[in-house]
Amino acid sequence: MKYPELKNCINGELTDDVSDHLDVLSPLDGSIISTVPLSNYDAVDKAASAARKAFESWSRIPIKERVQVFFKYKQLLEKNLKELSELVHEENGKTIPEAIAEIEKSIEVTEFACALPQLAAGEIMEVSRGVECRVDRYPVGVVASITPFNFPNMVPNWTIPNALALGNAMILKPSELVPLSANRIAELLKEAGLPDGVFNIVHGSKEVVEAICDHPGIDAITFVGSTKVAKIVYQRGTSKFKRVLALGGAKNHLIVLPDANVEMTASNVAASMSGCAGQRCMAASAMVAVGSIDHIIEKLCEEAKKIIPGKNLGAVISKPAKERIENYITEAEQQGAKILVDGRNYKVEGKENGFYVGPTVIDYVHPDMKIAKEEVFGPVLSIIRTKDVDSAIEIQNSSHYGNAASVFTQSGGLARYVTERVSAGMTGVNIGVPVPREPFSFGGWNESKFGAGDITGKSSIEFWTKLKKTTIKWNPESRTNWMS
Ligand code: NAD
What we know:
Blueprint: E1 8-10, E2 13-15, E3 21-25, E4 32-37, H1 41-58, H2 63-79, H3 81-92, H4 96-114, H5 116-119, E5 123-128, E6 131-139, E7 142-146, H6 154-165, E8 169-173, H7 180-191, E9 199-201, H8 206-214, E10 220-224, H9 227-239, E11 243-247, E12 252-256, H10 262-274, E13 284-290, H11 294-305, H12 319-334, E14 338-341, E15 360-363, H13 370-373, E16 380-386, H14 389-397, E17 404-408, H15 412-421, E18 426-429, E19 449-450, H16 457-464, E20 465-473
Parallel strand pairs: 7-8, 7-10, 8-9, 10-11, 12-13, 12-17, 13-16, 15-16, 17-18
Antiparallel strand pairs: 1-2, 3-4, 5-6, 6-20, 11-19, 14-15
Helix pairs in contact: 1-8, 2-4, 3-4, 4-6, 8-9, 10-11
């Protein structure tokens, strides 16, 4: 094994009390690179106690002092960018440039957290003569962040800097498929000066997530992952009266109109469907082709054929994921769809045990087919042909997801018409991956997100804090006012 057996990180100590462990495989070549403990309620209980104790002092430190840790953390992410991105590449299977982009996004969200003293200040106003009201933000308390496999560094960092800078203490439950980056994050936070216990990691799977939902010492939970589990976490967590924000899966539509710029559209759609091997919740999954756009589809296939697994296309996360993706393609073919570019049964020379699927473009997909409705989460694009803009919008609106949707056109009026009508939390014009950058917040609609607000940016301030309203009378000569 390239890396030592992984342990939980509780109160600054590496601990492992369980006998149950899971092998961590590198999707690049299928080799075992480490093992991860499958912890239980006891570990969550210990982490919750450590976090509560740390919270008492951390939350009392002024925010301007707390963010100094994140100025240092940002520098450490920058200093260690190469090593951190190699770790992401190895445990997740994405390419090195994609892993670098992931760490760069972690740096950007940390930069945002450093600005929180400017953004999260309270308010004060004289509400009647000699009487003022002030509103102060208080941290929620001990919070938990449950994360998926597709961004081992970035998704934990969507929550860590903001939640901690705002005074909370955290338990992170990373995906058991990519647990290594989380422990490196803990080391860097410690090096940046974060006190022990403010950030803890409990590794594991379902049992740890259920313990987090049930534990009375945890006040709030963010979850990022599939819609199936997002619903479980949202229901179970809120039934225990916790504040929960649960981001789920996606089925993103790119609506391409006949006047779209051919080269730009083809390269953007190809990059969106294949980036991170299609394992992004913002990836293009369906292209809704409006009218006759065969010239764009032809160019798109040319672009897709330039994407080579093991070179500029990474691996998918696991063997079951590869099989699941290939089954979707085969089923669509059997139902009458036409495979224009076929990525099935791909082997990378020298990495025959890696989990690779080549870029796949499927034409004549009907909106009722399984591949048109479900999240495939692989480098696969379904083309759904339709006659006009309104029917394209109808197809997008029929999805129960609502993360992202984009339109490709040179008409400003049509772009506006579409972005206003699609049912998605993040929309784009002539862009394949419409991810809002800081300080704008990230979050979808419909079954792509459960709970109020978004997970990053300004919106996250509401999630990680609660408001205290104080009314003060400064005029003793006026013994009563209209409220008293
Ligand atoms: P997942 O739902 O399988 O796992 C997410 C987390 O939940 C992991 O930590 C895992 O250990 C835990 N988990 C898995 N099954 C569980 C169960 N039955 N009960 C309790 N906990 C359980 O998701 P994944 O496969 O790791 O990630 C891919 C999914 O995440 C895709 O659906 C993708 O769209 C979604 N995603 C969404 C966003 C977003 O912003 N909306 C971002 C990234 C990924």
